[in-house]
Records
---
Amino acid sequence: MKLHNTLSRKVEPFKTIKAGQTKLYTCGPTVYDDQTIGNLRTYVLYDTLSRALRAGGYTVDHVMNITDVGHLTSDADAGEDKLEKGAKRAGKTVWEVADHYITLFNGDLKKLNVIKPRIARATDFIDAQIVMVKILMDKGFGYQTEQAIYFDITKFPTYGELTGQNLSDKEVGARSEVITDKTKRNPQDFALWFFAVGRFAGHEMKWPSPWGEGFPGWHLECSAIIHETLGDPIDIHAGAVDLIGTHHTNEMAQTEAAYGNKLANYWVHGEHLLVDEKRMAKSLGNFYTLQDVMKKGYDPLALRLLYLQAHYRHQLNFTWEALDGAQAFLNRLRDWADLRFQPNLGHKKTAAAAYEEVLDKIKQSLANDLNTGQALVALSELANLSEQYGVDVNKLGALLPKVDELLGLDLAKRQAIDQPLKELIEEREQARRAKDWPKADELRARLGREGIELDDTPHGPVWSKKS
Ligand SMILES: [Zn+2]
């Protein structure tokens, strides 16, 4: 398997720490609002990565956090806590808001066929986060002001390694408006622990700590959860590209400073989804959720297929026309899986061999830095061949569950008629070819009573279910 590693900016051969086992950590949602189809693209990437690893023979221990505290409206410690803001907006408690959006998030993952990772809620790991702050303070990486405990980035010489920028570049890039605490030593120092004072005096979520009541900074939870659940170093850490500069850079600094371990050997980052070539934003009115997609009559798996058509390291421009195309592609694959093209007749040797090859082609494509587009081409080619030469019912039946394991498109489930009915269709086709019209008509009538309609095409009969 080969993966692009943000650390080296190269596609590298993938080697695990322990043979055959992968420790995978992915940054999850901040549960204060609906997930957009842009966010969901990232979770489908995580899922594709984990499916590709399994196909490559690895066991995968995949942990994903849920941020339910400490994520401010600016990633650089300015603004309000997103959860507290969401609670004010909805007139609910922060806990209610978190539960509400976690339920919606789980529903979205299910509809998109994302295999659920081990979930770790930030608020379930408060003790581990406090322990980590303690270690960082003891080792001299942390310092305390009236508002917060900060990580002093000048104490960590390789800070910013993941971005490929050096510190002075970042300093120039730091905006003055994000410096809300004048007693911070360096503009990029980031909060490990906020005190429930000043702008956070009314904070609903707070816990006691050796330094005073408060709540953890957003970056800390991922380092603490990784240390507790998977143990550092891990094999792969993944997230969206916008996390590289601040969140992931800070995670790396915390873990390496506290525990002396590298955080992750491979960093996988997914590109953004654009809508009509623009960044998605509520203010632009181009902010779509899975519910919006479904309300317009699209299948959630058409969205999954649209994501898979693009490479994860490329921006994907979402348009409704593009989703139409993905839905049509999905329908076509379903017709194929439903054996609507032609039942068990006249398949040629070439088509039979293609069944054997397609699984390898899909696996190889995924193993090549998750080239999902190429995997779909292989699948589509087989569907084309089947249309031309007929479907091998047994081979297709054996193949589809394996394709589903790799791509999560639920094609096997689409085999909507039972084997006895398939056999009847075949029997009737043989009667028709033998010009035994009474028998053919009788079998057609029997199928009709079972709710199956037949349409004779030049390629053979195509069945459909009566609606
Ligand atoms: Zn994270």
Note: The longest helix spans residues 37-55.
---
Amino acid sequence: MKISRRNFLKLSGLAALSGTLASKLGCAPDEPPTPTPVDPTPIVDDPEELWIQYAQTVHSICPICGVGCGVLSYVEDDSIVAVDGDPDHPINEGTLCSKGITLYNMYYVYDEKGDPVVNNQRVTKVLYRAPRASEWEEVDWDWALEEMAQRIKQTRDDFFEETNEEGVTVNRCPAFVWLGSAMITNEENYLFHKFCRAHGILNIDHCARL
Ligand code: SF4
């Protein structure tokens, strides 16, 4: 049934009037229950007794996806004791999604009793596997960065193509493949994309296609 605006207002007035009459005649429905007042007593009497009271707060970025939410890690005795969203971060303003809120579990695994223990599988050093080698070896950052720079330069020098077979300008280097990472932010991915274009890299991919 189509109701005009005028009829809608008339019906609304009638409904309000009949409600008032019913109330006066004592046949109005029961009043809705009064909500239980919220107990204003703080859960923790003394905020100084919070379990992170002795922890150092470290500002960081969630490494799980390219949104790049701000994270506060609470560190005590070189161990993370809690993780929370950073309320001052402009992207997430203190919130974390269901993945980000479990960041704590990237640092720990659980033993057979269900107690958290530091995850010793985390890669914390630079590992290098030489061509045709079967084992990884630990190297330092200075060596790794220098080696990467040398190889990128050599590959570009050897394989850069200014024109294709028809003489059309292409400025490309098909010998490179670049894989991005969801563990870097949108802005970092933007810079990496610029880096690829400057080097003529065409083969670019990323698990989230950023
Ligand atoms: S995984 Fe969640 S908390 Fe982490 S950056 Fe992405 S959206 Fe933010």
Note: The chain has a mean pLDDT of 84.
